[in-house]
Amino acid sequence: MTPTIVIVPGLGGSGPEHWQSLWEQKFGAVRVQQDDPENPTPEMWSARLQEVIEATPGELVLVGHSCGVLNIVHWARLYGGHERVKGAVLVSPTDAEQTSTYAEYPAVAQMAPTPMQALPFAAMVVASENDPFASFGQAEAFAAAWGAEIVSAGEAGHINVASGHGDWPEGEILLSEALHAWTPPDVVRF
């Protein structure tokens, strides 16, 4: 059985035109709905992610964007992961310690400091080389600390609707590659 995709949005919850919302519909994914998507805290956002993981049967692959990536790494630190989580695709991680990020979005600073220990599951960091919310060098440092593969998306901005990534076919290819790498060969894939 193909793992269930769990969509982990960032600030604002990824609107209807965002690739995460489109993937939710296209792949029948489960979505983490935060009570307050504009006010992240590691404890509250991680608790909600844990609730969704516990309520969703079978193997899971987490797909986080921006502050949703921080949600996933804080959840792994606070909960130690979960044996059914086979991997995570971590797109455009936000640098919560970057002053220009929290000057524009002060709530992001509540997610600092970013955990910098290895994740207990396979992971792929997909980062842009001109993301205003984290340099590619910082994304590489995150990936190294988390034990994740790093993939450059080129100069793709924050890989969101504002940067032209509503529909994101290159991301679907990366997701498919990750699912192939993280699941047994006899599993049916999308």
Structural class: alpha/beta
Please trace the helix and strand order, writing H or E for each element: EHEHEHEHEHEH
Taking the sheet with the most strands, its summary is: 6 strands, parallel
Helix fraction, binned, reads 25-40%
Task: Offer a quick outline of the entry.
The chain contains six helices and six strands.
Notes on the protein architecture:
- The chain is of the alpha/beta class and 190 residues long.
- It has a single domain, classed as Alpha/Beta hydrolase fold, catalytic domain (Rossmann fold), CATH 3.40.50.
- The chain has 6 helices and 6 strands; from the N terminus they run E-H-E-H-E-H-E-H-E-H-E-H.
- The chain has helices spanning 19-27, 42-55, 67-79, 99-104, 136-146, 169-182, and strands at residues 4-8, 30-31, 60-65, 85-91, 122-127, 149-152.
- The protein has a 6-stranded parallel beta sheet with strand order 2-1-3-4-5-6, sandwiched between helices.
- Strand 4, helix 4 (99-104) and strand 5 form a beta-alpha-beta unit.
- Helix 2 (42-55) crosses helix 3.
- The longest helix has 14 residues, at 42-55.
- The N and C termini lie close together (11 Å).
- The mean pLDDT is 93.
Question: How is this fold's topology laid out?
Answer:
Elements: E1 4-8, H1 19-27, E2 30-31, H2 42-55, E3 60-65, H3 67-79, E4 85-91, H4 99-104, E5 122-127, H5 136-146, E6 149-152, H6 169-182
Parallel strand pairs: 1-2, 1-3, 3-4, 4-5, 5-6
Helix pairs in contact: 2-3
Features:
alpha/beta, 16% strand, 6 helices, Rossmann fold, 6-stranded parallel beta sheet, 190 residues, single chain, globular
